[in-house]
Amino acid sequence: MATPTLDICAVPLAGINLVEAAAGTGKTRTIAALYLRTVLQAEFQVRNILVVTYTHAATRELRERIRDLLLQAAGVFQHGDAGEDALLNHLAATDPDPELALKRLRRAIADFDEAAIFTIHGFCQRVLAENAFEGAQPFESELLTDERQIVCEVVDDFWRRNIYPAGVLWVDWLQANGVDHPERLLNGLTNLMGKPYLRMASLPEPKSPKALEHELQSCFQTLADDWSAQRDSVEKILLEDDRLNRNRYRTSSVAVWIAQMDLLLKRTRPDFMALREFTRFDRFQASVISERRSVKKGHTPPTHPFFESCDEFAGRLKNLEDIYQQLYRIFQRELYQYVVTELPLRKAERGALGYDDLLTRLQTALHGPQSDSLVAKLRSDYRVALIDEFQDTDPVQYDIFRKIYHGSDCPVFLVGDPKQAIYSFRGADVFTYLRARQDATKQFSLDQNWRSVPQLVHAVNLLFERRAELPAFLLDEIDFSPAQPAPKQLPQLTESGLAAPALMIWPLSREDDNKPIAKHRAGSLCAAASATEIARLLAIPAKIGDEPLRPSNIAVLVRTHSQARIVETAMREAGIASVRHSQESVYQTHEAVELERVLIAILEPNREARVRAALLTDFWGMDAASLQSFSSLELAWDTRLAGFHHYHELWRTHGFMRMFREWSAVEGVYPRLLGFEDGERRLTNLLQLAELIHGQERHCAGLNNLVTWFSEAMTRPPVRDDPSLLRLESDEDRVQIVTVHGSKGLQYPVVFLPFSWSGGLQVAGSEHCIFHDTSQGNAATVDFGSADFEQHLAQACREELAENLRLFYVALTRARCRCYLAWGAVNDAATSALAWLLHRSPDVAQDDLITALQARFRAITDPEIRDTLERLAEKSEGAIQVIEPSIERNGPTTSDAVFKRPMAAREVSRKIDQTWRLTSFSALSTGHTTELPDYDHAQQRVLYDGERTDVFTFPRGARAGTCLHQVFEELDFANPNEERRNAVIERVLKTHGYEARWQDVVAQLVDRVIHVPLDPQGTLRLADIQRSQRVDELEFYYPFAAHNPQALKSATQASAEDTHIKMAIEQIELGATAGFMHGFIDLVFEAAGRYYLVDYKSNFLGSNYDDYRPDLLKEVMEREHYVLQYLIYTVALHRYLKHRIPDYHYEKHFGGVYYLFLRGMNPALGHRCGVYYDRPSQALIGPLERLLGSAT
Q1: DSSP string covering 648-661, please?
Q2: Could you say which of 51, 485, 720, 811 is the most buried, measured as most Cβ atoms within 10 Å of its Cβ?
Q3: Strand pairing partners for 504?
Q4: Residue with more model confidence, 417 or 636
């Protein structure tokens, strides 16, 4: 039975009413009209009429529209002229007491500041604050706009609890599968947070992996032993046996596989990462070698016991990985459960609430022991409820309103449109809307479109009509009722005085009939076609009614920020001014990346590499050639470095904004940015970033903390943070580039949808899925890998396609006069909204309709697509036109590469060695891919003893180590000025967040360290080293050859003098790597013609000087692998000196290595306490240098 149309003048103000308002049918006007009738007829004050919507912008609009209607009504009742407004005419004509009505209206207008018009979160916050006792809530709580920091802490705790004590093979498997950091776990929670209503599909309990781990380890050891004994014979078979098919066993490939097998089996246990990279391990398996395609026709395959062992290993590996895959599903579920349980507790400890907590706390209160009194109070306070955008509700929100109003005599109107439910990523749940239909006393519809011209209404109706008895919106519960055009005449778009079709469709043709159109090509083509058509419309000029079409009358709607950038580029190339409305964070822009480089350079002006990186940004405009030329001019370069030091001091003494203003003025940043084609956008981003940093400065103690905050904001931009959203760069009359989600609730005379062919289902490749379980009343459920995961994933894909259809409907219905679409066989278009709307048929009406739709679409030819579009246009009676896209280009553009010449990948003529990478001491010694801090990284941070403040109780950990390093880096050892020294120490301590109480302690530590004699003769002290004799933080890169990990150990055997080094290196399990060695040497100084390297160690070894004796330091050096570290540093300094000192000789010029354990140094004890010294022999350093740099 058809849903009756809402009669706004006659609908009874009683019961729970569901109003389905299609796009453009006057939903906001309807709510305002219901509000007006309530004021006039129900005798309620404005504070008793609850109006709820879902965004602040919608709240502001509703408030303005309602107040305007109240003012209009007051004018009608006072002066009696309603014009053509049917509602006001009806109310004025039927009201029994116009004077009383006017009084009520005037009171409502006077009291309108008290109007209860809220966002859903604002409503919950108000209720909790005013009813803290009934709701058993704290009277004061901090509202968090971004709770990710707490979420990160919870995820970090889960990581520590579950990863640290876990077995090594399980951890290795996780790392090989990308779970190598808590951040990876955090990313997996993105679409699960804020949905406390989610159920969890049950998971099967896996077997314990212990036995399989033991079997795999034993099998691996056997394989390694076999390889050690039989390597030559295996290699001979694979390289020389004539029976093997050399198309499959090329000798060049076999040599690589042999080397990979060497690397794999040199390890003490199976390495899952190495196995992932060793993609041709199966070529060693007997089962693969015996395949017909592995051997020449008519030959028997070669055999070898090692091949059989590889088969056994591969089988055991698969068995264990199957168990690990099941364990990983449990691991994900436990993570989600832990976060859901622990996060509210953490927030409660801090007296904080997130936005979602406002909802869940009110829901809990409404079902708690005081619920009856709370419900009664809310019904008394809010005697009428008008809920806007109800299609965006969720189970928690609806339960709140149901608990308050179900079974009461309060009038409730739930106004929404399930066809416009597009916010599932925010937690909206259209199935909740569908369930609410069951509770509604009455249902109404609004189907008269007041937005779009009749031709466009007709075109949209044709696209969404039911075909082959299949619903347009995929779900049977969401039906499409054709909209009716408004009875009044709307302004039309005309070209040279002639009306044109309202819906224009551009057919896209394939270059190769057997291949779909590449998405990047379709995107560039359609963006350029949009720019060409916009230029044509503006040039005619087209008119809307009697007014010329203006750029701001035109909107280009996109789904993603990357699509917006493509359109922005096309507009710029066509010379069309445009502005991008975006929900993108300014922290994710190119300007943020470059500003970070500048700030780091100003923070550390002594590091020339940082300065060079800053100068290469667009703010300075240098390229590599000009920077190289400039840096060769010694005087100019020194002046430039002095400028960075000046900015550093200005920032430190006068704050960020003072420094920023002087930097941008002196360096001419603004004019340089405005010189770019998108200069306004760049400058707007830079100024917005500067404001955000300035606002954060008072919350961050010191320059370093401020830069750290900025870097973290770039890594994880804050959510629900309006100040960090991209601002409009201009208010001028420009073409609007808007996301479809951002366009919701807006309208434009002309709309372009250049990416209407865009398909692809994001959930298809997910590790988990959210779906609605039909067996549980369509309850929202998350599945981490149940036995029915494939079935549930298919349901999730259908739900995503259904939302894509609703998103396309929203996009189409933003247009008032004309809309442009593009359609064709683009890659992934099979899962787009248009594929379903245009090409669905009975043969896809099955459980796996996605697969069936994809198969059908793959078989469709371009002529068939064109025929479908032409038949639709013919049926439209002139409302739809199919027309080839036109592209007008003035001179070469960046898009010409797509349009004018075919693109082809250049043939690779050499093998790319993908094992090369930037490595470090940490990577070589531990297998980590980044350099780890060497300040107490293996120790827990211990709080200082409140009764002692000395070097032994000074805080420990990486932060303390960094602080002390900076002190020594900035101090002039030879300058006895204590005031200057104390000023540096005070500033550095403050920068790193330490109290002033530690200033004397650090000053004493510094004084002791620089006066300790480093040699037995007592002639070498840091206090005697001038600034001109030292280099701090010497950064180095040098080529590091690919090698067998044992080669480095073997090289240490070259010298009989370095027995302690041999023993230390033997204990290290070296990782295999190649590329470039990178690191920083804390200090290099020259004394008496010899050069020494120094590494400061803040490690806490004990609370007495005896804990820092030479024999104990030797143990620490070996345990922490510092011996390997100083060998790497020695090679670096040796190479550095060779290139800078004429007639350099290692024995003559290299003085040695000092590792200074700062806490244990005391001048009275000399070099026998806290000082570790070594001077590796030339017989060792020579072979090491050749080994580490032999590859090119």
Answers
A1: HHHHHHH-HHHHHH
A2: 811
A3: 820, 881
A4: 417
| DSSP state letter for 1028 | G
Per-residue HEC secondary structure of 596-651 comes to HHHHHHHHCCCCHHHHHHHHCCCCCCCCHHHHHHHHCCHHHHHHHHHHHHHHHHHH
d(CA 320, CA 576): 59
Check if the beta carbon of residue 478 is closer than 8 Å to that of residue 418: yes
580 close to 739: Cβ distance less than 8 angstroms: no
Instruction: Give the separation between CA 944 and CA 947, rounded to whole angstroms.
Output: 9
Residue 298 zone, left/alpha/beta (φ > 0; ψ -120 to 50; rest): left
Catalytic annotation on 1095?
A: yes
Residue 71's φ and ψ, nearest 5 degrees, are -65, -40
DSSP letter, residue 517? B
- C-alpha distance across the termini of the chain, in Å: 79
Burial 294-321 (b: 16+ CB within 10 A, else e): bbeeeeebbebebbebbbebbebbeebb
How would you classify the pairing of strands 1030-1040 and 1074-1087?
antiparallel
Which pLDDT tens digit goes with each residue over 964-1005?
999 999 999 998 888 889 989 998 888 777 888 899 999 999
Q: Residue 18, Cβ neighbours under 10 Å: how many?
A: 23
pLDDT of residue 904: 57
Supply 646's token pair: 């000046």
Q: Which of 186-190, 772-776, 986-990 has the lowest mean pLDDT?
A: 186-190
> φ, ψ for residue 169 (rounded to 5)?
-65, -40
- Indicate the angle between helix axes 120-130 and 355-366, nearest 10 degrees: 60
DSSP string across 861-893:
-HHHHHHHHHHHHHHTTTSEEE-------SS--
Beta bridge partners of 375: none
Residues contacting residue 460 through CB under 8 Å, at least 6 positions apart: 452, 483, 503, 809, 812, 813
E-strand spans in 825-960?
880-882, 916-919
What amino acid is encoded at 661 in this protein? R
DSSP 1071: P
Give the position of tokens 């009455």: 442
Alpha helices in 496-542 (DSSP H): 519-539
* Cα separation, 769 vs 796, whole angstroms: 7
Q: Whole-angstrom Cα distance, residue 582 to residue 546?
A: 32
In which order are the strands placed within the sheet that holds 49-53?
Answer: 116-119, 49-53, 384-387, 412-416, 16-21, 442-446
3-state secondary structure of 446: strand
Q: Which of 394, 678, 1058, 1095 is catalytic?
A: 1095
Mean pLDDT, residues 811-835: 94
Contact 447, 440 (CB under 8 A): no
Q: What is the DSSP secondary-structure string of 485-506?
A: E-SSPPP-EEETTEE--SEEEE
- Rounded to an integer, what distance in angstroms lies between the CA atom of residue 949 and that of residue 788? 62
Compute how many other C-beta atoms are within 10 angstroms of the C-beta atom of residue 58. 18
How, if at all, do strands 578-580 and 748-753 pair? unpaired
The b/e string for 234-250 (b: 16+ C-beta within 10 A; e otherwise) is beebbeebeebbeeebe
Give tens-digit pLDDT for 221-263. Answer: 999 999 999 999 999 999 999 999 999 999 999 999 999 999 9
DSSP character at residue 937: T
Please state whether 703 falls in left (phi above 0), alpha (psi between -120 and 50) or beta: alpha
Q: Is residue 525 a contact partner of residue 570, using CB atoms and an 8 Å limit?
A: no
**The model's pTM:** 0.71
Within 10 Å of residue 1003's Cβ, how many Cβ atoms? 17
Rounded CA separation 652/648 (Å): 6
- Give the Å distances, CA to CA, from 637 to 588, 611, 621, 640, 645: 32, 10, 16, 5, 13
Q: Average of pLDDT values for 259-273?
A: 92
